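Summary of Year 1 activities. Much of the first year was spent building the evaluation harness for sequence design. The harness presents a backbone, in tokenized form, and records the residue chosen at every position. We chose the following record to illustrate the format because it has been used consistently in internal testing since the harness was completed.
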């Protein structure tokens, strides 16, 4: 009728935890990116806060497990590489730039 309803027919994207670790690189980059974004009408404050928490928890895990192997500074940010469950995981943490735009600058640009 509508498809299998039994829980035994579930399809798992990652059959093992190690499979999930192998594919965590891109997800970590996105988590760290959203953790640095300012909340606005397009990015909710709860999303930013959740990503900030996840990023902090990941960093804490890496520190406690002493898994960090390499760090590289680039124009995009800081690349980290760690060994987690015998898998190499690489992620990018963008630099945090504060953008303080004063009202004077905003007003002068509107007048021009």
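For this record, the design step produced the sequence shown next.
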């Amino acid at each position: 009728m509508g498809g299998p309803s039994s829980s035994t027919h579930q399809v798992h994207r990652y059959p093992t935890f190690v499979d999930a670790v192998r594919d965590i690189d891109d997800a970590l980059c996105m988590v760290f990116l959203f953790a640095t974004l300012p909340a606005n009408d397009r990015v909710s404050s709860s999303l930013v806060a959740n990503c900030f928490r996840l990023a902090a928890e990941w960093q804490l895990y890496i520190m406690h497990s002493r898994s960090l192997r390499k760090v590289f500074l680039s124009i995009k940010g800081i690349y980290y590489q760690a060994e987690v469950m015998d898998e190499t995981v690489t992620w990018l943490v963008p630099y945090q730039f504060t953008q303080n735009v004063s009202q004077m600058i905003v007003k002068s640009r509107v007048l021009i």
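Strands lie at 68-73, 77-84, 87-94. Quantitative recovery figures across the full test set are reported in Table 2.
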